[in-house]
């Protein structure tokens, strides 16, 4: 037998190898294990130095650091809810609201330079909430400049429902075009409790915030202390290096700015071809790529149904976790395939999350939902339990009638839903620069000067916008134009100086007009002294038509373009802004007799 066993023939041929070569001993196993440990990467230090984010201008950054004014602090104090529980100092917000006149000298020192001079405040207790509110009021004015279109939560001028509408239209586009794709619903685990403070400071610095502002933010986030109860008694306090306070007015804005890094990573992956997103196309040749949407601490990513793109997304999330401390909760995250996607379970396993199917009725019919909700609402005040019968002494229509008409003021769900959908029509005309408006415009197109989208055509799909457009007519019947430059308002056909268009008020003159589709700007003569209207008709007027011309000129008296932009106004309200309450009252057709509301409800 040879040294390693085997036949004599094996020993003969392997003699040289056993003499000069390496035997498979424990020594070499330990060497291989040591090399594996040295080559393994058990941690990663992520740096955001190469990340390019939107920055504030120097003027905007300096405006955040201006000295605190008494009116600013008092206004923020009055906006706060006084019924919140007090902090360790025992004082509620209501106390400071009522004690403002004699306590304001102690609350604010003239010339305060930093949080330490802002007395009496120790960054714990009731007055911290006031300081955070003042800083949050300043921050919310500029946060829209530094976060991208994908962020819709806690940004002034945007709504979280905007992201829901966009996601719906993406799924609708994939289904109508019979394309395949993946919807990755990602949930961030303990979002506010996990974000790293040093990471936040780096993000603020890259966004152009000043040194003083960053020092203020650090004082606010790092002042929190923690303690562990041992046998019901706190066993001392210790600091932390991460986490934001729940209920702090600053926390939502700081978190949104931290999530901007993930937005940049995904956008760079799309630009590099590692993620595809979904291309929204309409009748025109233009297209719009949508790769992700943020719902505060929830994220939706749209990508191609391939293992490579899911793997790229996994690495992006891994890098973001290493940089920020924010980890994706895979137990609550899902991958939803759109279309006939093969190997869906393998794709979910690649990301490490659950697999889910898009429900057959993902967006149920609005009328059916309203009927079910109305039935449950009706059951609450008029009926008892399932086994308990109850006589309805008052008609449901009377219950839903407004108080000043003799009812209880409960709202009809179907009518309320129409009012809510109508607000989208108003917002489309007003919010030209919002991303959701661009998505609808790209997919469906727009009419004239972009005030109204085109009608939805083609198969129903799952698009919500088709249901919204059913409320277009009544909404526009109660909208009018406010003239600015007049470049986007038609002189004859739009409603701008009377309750109805001039083409309807002066139909005979409209028939004789030469420029029937002209805008107000085109009809205004800037060269005629202080300006005048250029009314051109196909023939001279008869004597009996001169009265109509005089009425038209009287209507136009005092009307002239300005340097402002054209806009729309809601005619049912005092300030011209669409209100759900006013729209509901307009749509509610309940008839009631005269009711002495003040004598009964006024007390």
Automatic annotation (TrEMBL):
Iron-sulfur found in the keyword field: no
Highest taxon of source: Eukaryota
Presence of the UniProt keyword rRNA processing in the record: no
Domain Reverse transcriptase positions: 91-355
PROSITE patterns (alphabetical): RT_POL
InterPro entries, sorted: DNA/RNA_pol_sf, Retrotransposon-Effector_Assoc, RT_dom
GO-annotated molecular function: RNA-directed DNA polymerase activity
Pfam families in the cross-refs: RVT_1
Keyword vocabulary terms for this entry: Nucleotidyltransferase, RNA-directed DNA polymerase, Transferase
Protein name, entry field: LINE-1 reverse transcriptase-like
Organism of provenance: Vitis vinifera
């Amino acid at each position: 037998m040879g040294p390693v066993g085997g036949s004599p023939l094996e020993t003969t041929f392997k003699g040289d190898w056993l003499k000069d070569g390496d035997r498979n001993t424990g020594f070499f196993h330990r060497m291989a294990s040591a090399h594996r440990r040295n080559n393994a990467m058990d941690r990663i230090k992520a740096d955001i130095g190469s990340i390019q984010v939107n920055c504030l201008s120097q003027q905007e950054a300096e405006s955040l650091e201006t000295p605190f004014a008494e009116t600013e602090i008092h206004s923020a104090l009055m906006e706060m809810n006084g019924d919140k529980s007090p902090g360790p100092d025992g004082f509620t917000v209501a106390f400071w609201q009522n004690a403002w006149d004699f306590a304001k000298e102690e609350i604010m020192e003239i010339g305060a330079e930093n949080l330490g001079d802002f007395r009496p405040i120790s960054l714990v207790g009731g007055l911290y909430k006031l300081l955070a509110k003042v800083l949050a009021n300043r921050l919310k004015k500029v946060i829209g400049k530094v976060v991208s279109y994908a962020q819709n939560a806690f940004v002034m001028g945007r709504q979280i429902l905007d992201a829901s509408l966009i996601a719906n239209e993406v799924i609708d586009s994939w289904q109508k075009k019979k394309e395949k794709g993946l919807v990755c619903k990602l949930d961030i685990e303990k979002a506010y409790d996990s974000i790293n403070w040093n990471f936040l400071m780096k993000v603020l610095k890259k966004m152009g915030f000043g040194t003083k502002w960053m020092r203020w933010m650090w004082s606010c986030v790092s002042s929190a202390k923690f303690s562990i109860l041992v046998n019901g008694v706190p066993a001392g306090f210790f600091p932390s290096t991460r986490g934001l306070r729940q209920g702090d007015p600053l926390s939502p804005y700081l978190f949104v700015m931290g999530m901007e890094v993930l937005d940049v990573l995904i956008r760079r992956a799309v630009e590099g071809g590692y993620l595809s997103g979904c291309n929204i196309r309409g009748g025109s040749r233009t297209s719009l790529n949508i790769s992700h949407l943020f719902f505060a601490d929830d994220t939706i990513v749209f990508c191609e149904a391939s293992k490579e793109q899911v793997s790229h997304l996994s690495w992006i999330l891994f890098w973001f976790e290493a940089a920020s401390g924010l980890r994706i909760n895979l137990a609550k995250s899902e991958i939803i395939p759109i279309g006939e996607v093969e190997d869906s379970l393998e794709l979910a396993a690649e990301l490490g999350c659950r697999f889910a199917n898009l429900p057959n009725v993902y967006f149920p019919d609005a009328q059916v939902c309203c009927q079910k909700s109305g039935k449950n609402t009706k059951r609450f005040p008029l009926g008892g339990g399932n086994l308990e019968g109850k006589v309805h002494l008052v008609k449901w229509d009377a219950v839903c009638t407004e108080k000043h008409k003799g009812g209880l003021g409960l709202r009809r769900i179907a009518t309320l839903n129409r009012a809510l959908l109508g607000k989208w029509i108003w917002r489309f005309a007003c919010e030209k620069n919002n991303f959701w408006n661009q998505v609808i415009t790209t997919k469906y197109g727009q009419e004239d000067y972009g005030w109204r989208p085109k009608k939805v055509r083609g198969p129903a799909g799952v698009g919500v916008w088709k249901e919204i457009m059913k409320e277009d007519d009544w909404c526009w019947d109660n909208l009018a134009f406010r003239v600015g430059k007049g470049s986007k308002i038609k002189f004859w056909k739009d409603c701008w100086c009377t309750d109805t268009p001039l083409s309807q008020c002066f139909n005979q003159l409209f028939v004789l007009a030469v420029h029937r589709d002209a805008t107000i700007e085109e009809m205004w003569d800037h060269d005629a002294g202080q300006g005048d209207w250029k009314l051109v008709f196909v023939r001279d007027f008869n004597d009996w038509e001169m009265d109509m011309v005089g009425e038209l000129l009287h209507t136009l008296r005092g009307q002239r373009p300005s340097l402002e932009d054209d806009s729309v106004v809601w005619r049912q309200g005092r300030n011209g802004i669409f209100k759900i309450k006013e729209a509901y009252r307009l749509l509610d057709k309940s008839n009631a007799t005269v009711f002495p509301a003040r004598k009964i409800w006024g007390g």
